[in-house]
Write a structure and sequence with these properties.
single chain, 462 residues, alpha+beta, Chloramphenicol Acetyltransferase, 2 domains, 6-stranded mixed beta sheet, globular, transferase
Length: 462
C-alpha cells in the first residue's frame, strides 16, 4: 500500500535572513561531526490528526520553516569538500539552484492514518515512504530534507537530516522551534539562549588531524562517500513500540536498589539509577534472553551527550554534534541471572561505563573509529540504543495539536532500540525496537511480564 503515496510537488525552502549577520558562510567541522560522515541520515516522522486542508498546512509549514532556517541556517547548506585542503565543511552560502531545503508534498487516499498512529506494530515500508530520500553518498551532499504527506484526517511531517550537521540534542530544539514559529503564524521564535554553531568550542588541539584520519577511514574515495545505513532485509525484522509508564519506571528503579548483584540486601540502599539506565538495562536483558543464547557475550552501544562533561562545558545551545559512543560487553550468563540479578548487573554495568567514558570525554578519540569497527562484527549479540526521552518531540505543536505519534524511522536493524518521551505520560518513555519476529514474540512476553495490573510489588523479573 506504500505505492499509494503520490508526490504532488517538490520545491526548495530558503532561509529568511535575520537581523543578525551570520558569522560565516563556511563552517568548519569538528571530529565529532566527521565521525558521522558515512552514516545514513537521521529520519524522524511525526503524525498529526487534523481536518485542516493540506494546502494551508503546507503553506504554513513552508513559510515557518523558512523563518526558522534564518536562525538555524547551517541546515539549509551542504556538506562540501575543500579542493585545497581536502577537508569537509558546511557551505552555508547562497547562489546555487539547489540551495536550501528540499520540501516534498505528497498525498494518499488509501493509507489509513489512524492505523499508522495507533498500531503498536510498525508499518516500516510505509514509514520509509513518508520520510524524504536524501542521498549522502557523493559530495556536496544536502543536510536536510522535509516531506509532508496528506491523509484523510491528518498529515505527517517527515524530516531527514545528515548526522554530520547535528545530534539529537540539536535536532529536537530545531523541530520544536519550527513548530512554535508555525503555531505563532510565522513570528520568529525568541530563543532563551543564542544558538552556537562555532565548532571551535569543542576545543581539541588535534581536531584537523583527527578529522582527516576519520575521513580517510570512512571515505577514502571522496568525493564519493561510502555511505552506510546498516543494510538488512526488512522482511526479516519485526518492529514494535511500547509505552513504559512512570509507575513502571519507578518499579524498575526500586528493584535496582533492592540488593546488590551478590545478593546483599542490607539496609543501606544505593542511589536509584536514571530513567535511561533502568529502561536500557531492562530492554538489554530482555533482548538477550529472547535471543535464547546461553553463552557468549552481548554488546550494548549508545551515545552519551558530552556538553556538560567537558572542561570548560560546551553550551547546551551548541548546534552540532557533541556525543560520544559508549559500549560495553557483558557475558550472557551475567545478563540472564534470575530473580532480578541480571537486571541489576546490567544497571551497574551501564552506570560504570557512562562514568568511565565521560570522565574525560575526548580521551582516546583518535582511536574511536577503530574501536567501533572492532565491535560491529559481533552483531549476533549487539543492542544499539538511540534517542532520548528528554528530547520532547511530542511537544512539537505546529498549530494543529501535539503529534499523535513520533517515530525514528532510520534505525530498524536487529537489536536497534529507540527512546522517546511518552505522549500522555510526563515521566514515561516510549520505546521502539526491532528484532526478528521469533525473537520479538519472546521479548514481548519478557518485557511486559508483570506490567499488566502492576501493583506495589512491581515487575516480576525473571
Amino acid at each position: 500500500m506504500a505505492d499509494s503515496i503520490r508526490v504532488s510537488n517538490t520545491s526548495r525552502v530558503l532561509p529568511v535572513p535575520t537581523d543578525d549577520e551570520h558569522p560565516t558562510t563556511l563552517l568548519s567541522l569538528s571530529f565529532l561531526d566527521t565521525f558521522w560522515v558515512c552514516i545514513g541520515p537521521v529520519q524522524r516522522l511525526l503524525f498529526y490528526r487534523s481536518e485542516a486542508p493540506l494546502a494551508s498546512v503546507v503553506q504554513s509549514l513552508k513559510s515557518s520553516l523558512s523563518v526558522t532556517l534564518g536562525t538555524f541556517y547551517p541546515l539549509s547548506g551542504k556538506l562540501a569538500l575543500s579542493a585545497d585542503s581536502g577537508e569537509l565543511f558546511i557551505d552555508c552560502g547562497a547562489g546555487g539552484e539547489d540551495d536550501g531545503v528540499e520540501f516534498t508534498e505528497a498525498e494518499t487516499d488509501e493509507e489509513d492514518l489512524e492505523r499508522l498512529v495507533t498500531d503498536h506494530v510498525h508499518h516500516w515500508e510505509t514509514y520509509k515512504r513518508l520520510v524524504p530520500d536524501m542521498r549522502i553518498d557523493c559530495l556536496p551532499a544536502p543536510l536536510m530534507a522535509v516531506k509532508v504527506t496528506g491523509f484523510r484526517g491528518g498529515f505527517t511531517v517527515g524530516v531527514s537530516v545528515h548526522h554530520v550537521a547535528v545530534d539529537g540534542n540539536s535536532l529536537s530544539p530545531f523541530v520544536k522551534a519550527w513548530a512554535e514559529t508555525c503555531r505563532s503564524r510565522g513570528g520568529a521564535v525568541v530563543l532563551r539562549e543564542a544558538v552556537t554553531f562555532d565548532r571551535a568550542v569543542v576545543g581539541h588541539p588535534r581536531n584537523s588531524d583527527i578529522c582527516r584520519n576519520y575521513l580517510d577511514l570512512f571515505s577514502p574515495s571522496r568525493p564519493t562517500v561510502s555511505a552506510t545505513s546498516g543494510p538488512f532485509d526488512p522482511s526479516k525484522v519485526a518492529r514494535r513500540t511500547f509505552i513504559i509508564t512512570t509507575k513502571m519506571i519507578q518499579s524498575l528503579k526500586r528493584i535496582a536498589t533492592e540488593m546488590d548483584r551478590d545478593g546483599d540486601s542490607s539496609q543501606t540502599k544505593k542511589k536509584p539509577p536514571s530513567t535511561f539506565v533502568a529502561v536500557a538495562a531492562h530492554a538489554w536483558t530482555c533482548i538477550t534472553r529472547a535471543r535464547a543464547t546461553e553463552d557468549g557475550q552481548s554488546t550494548l552501544f549508545f551515545m552519551a551527550d558530552c556538553r556538560s562533561r567537558v572542561d570548560p562545558p560546551i553550551p547546551q545551545s551548541f548546534f552540532g554534534n557533541c556525543v560520544k559512543a559508549c559500549n560495553m560487553k557483558s557475558s550472557v550468563a551475567d545478563l540472564l541471572a534470575g530473580e532480578g540479578h541480571g537486571f541489576r548487573f546490567a544497571c551497574d554495568a551501564i552506570e560504570r561505563t557512562i562514568k568511565e567514558e565521560t570522565s574525560e570525554p575526548f580521551r582516546g578519540c583518535e582511536e574511536w573509529v577503530q574501536r567501533l569497527m572492532a565491535i560491529l562484527p559481533d552483531h549476533g549479540g549487539f543492542v544499539h540504543f538511540a534517542g532520548s526521552h528528554r528530547f520532547g518531540l511530542y511537544k512539537a505543536d505546529f498549530g494543529w495539536g501535539r503529534p499523535s505519534r513520533v517515530e525514528f524511522v532510520s534505525m530498524s536493524n536487529d537489536g536497534a532500540v529507540v527512546m522517546n518521551d511518552a505522549r500522555d505520560d510526563g515521566g514515561g518513555v516510549q520505546l521502539s525496537l526491532a528484532l526478528p519476529p521469533h525473537h520479538m514474540e519472546v521479548f514481548v512476553t519478557l518485557f511486559l511480564d508483570g506490567m499488566d495490573g502492576l501493583g506495589s510489588d512491581g515487575f516480576k523479573l525473571r
